[in-house]
Amino acid sequence: MRLAHPWWLALVALAVAVAAVWLVRRRLQRYPLPLPPAGRGGLAAFASVAPGIAAALALALVAVALARPQEVLSRRLVRSEGVDIAIVLDVSGSMAALDFKPTDRLGVAKEVIRSFIRRRPADRIALVVFAGAAVTLCPLTLDHDVAIRFLDRARIGQLPDGTAIGMGLGVAVNRLRRSKAKSKVIVLVTDGANNAGQLDPHTAAELAKREGIVVHTVLVGKGGRVPIPVHVRNPLTGREEVRIRRLEVETNPELLQQIAQATGGQSFRAWDSEALRKVFATIDRLERTEFTSTRLVHYRERFEPWALAALVLLGLALAVEAALGRTPW
Q1: Nearest-CA neighbor of 196 among 156, 154, 160?
Q2: Would 328 be classed as within a structural domain?
Q3: Cβ distance 218 to 188 under 8 Å?
Q4: Is 11 domain-assigned?
């Protein structure tokens, strides 16, 4: 159900005002000032105010009828051919670096990816995470709420540490290789250099090229020494504590450029949170497909019962007034 003109419901406030004025007027007519205690009058008092209450209810029902309740008989049908996109996210230990605000590299990356997914309603999205190994978090799906819930579960420490770029890329290629979509894209997000895994990144890029998959690469943060929280055990208390240390993070932007160029994609660098948002906005513009949308929505009007009920109530109110030998005012 829906209301075609919901602003007519404002008349309900007028109905309440009508009922209040009627009640006060009839009470003053029966009992001129000073008024008797509330509750006196019994059936006669009720008969004097019932027509006013019925008229106010009738006005409220008229407001609902004017708002035009409608039953939805068919929904919008969208015929489109979107892009199949696999997002490959680095969850190695260096993604905990605190040079991205307000959280860390991984937290900001997840926030930006979440917004990116919401802007792609016609596309199927898959999620792959990698560190020292790679796994699929979410297969290709049009249910973006499900994809985002899986994205929220991505965290550092769920895989052996390391940066297996080739493995992450290979798992994503395997996810897309059976896709029938005309456009297949991988967005690879990492902050490090390949140092783990059994699949060479160049080999994975060749597999992507063979399958007609475009790979865009995003290098997050700067290389060198960056502040990273590490868990250490306090020798005095024996308790595990989190301390911030500046650790060396190796990057390989040349490798990411080669992967992107080999597959017809683009390579990006994001030095901070705002730069990462701009990178994904650029990718969003690059990977757009035209699609047609056909709106086939039919409604059935349902205002008649409300209008009929209002008419019946108003008729009853006038009949009671006439039976008691009174006019409405």
Answers
A1: 160
A2: no
A3: yes
A4: yes
Contact status, residue 85 vs residue 124, Cβ threshold 8 Å: yes
Q: How many CB atoms lie within 10 A of CB 82?
A: 19
Per-residue pLDDT 10s for the chain (329 aa) are 778 788 888 888 887 887 777 677 766 665 554 544 554 555 555 666 677 777 778 888 888 888 888 877 665 655 556 789 999 999 999 999 999 988 899 999 999 999 999 999 889 999 999 999 999 999 999 999 999 999 999 999 999 999 999 999 999 999 999 888 889 999 999 998 999 999 999 999 999 999 999 999 999 998 889 999 988 887 777 788 888 999 988 999 999 999 999 999 999 999 889 999 999 999 988 876 654 444 556 677 887 888 888 788 877 877 777 776 665 55
Number of domains in the chain: 2
C-alpha closest to that of 123 among 87, 78, 150, 83: 83
Q: Is residue 329 part of a domain?
A: no
Residue 8 in tokens: 């007519």
Structure tokens at 232: 């250490």
Say which amino acid occupies 56: A
Q: Give the domain extent around 8.
A: 2-74+299-323
Cα 162 to Cα 14, 16, 192, 284, 294: the distances in Å are 69, 69, 9, 29, 48
- Distance, CA of 125 to CA of 147 (rounded, Å): 7
Task: Answer yes or no: is 19 within a domain.
Answer: yes
In total, the chain counts a number of residues equal to 329
DSSP structure class, residue 43: H
User: β-pairing, 213-220 with 267-270?
Assistant: parallel
Place of tokens 């650029």: 282
- Between 165-176 and 253-263, two packed helices, what is the crossing angle to 10 degrees? 20
What is the reported pTM? 0.64
Q: Please give the Cα distance from 32 to 85 (Å, whole number).
A: 78
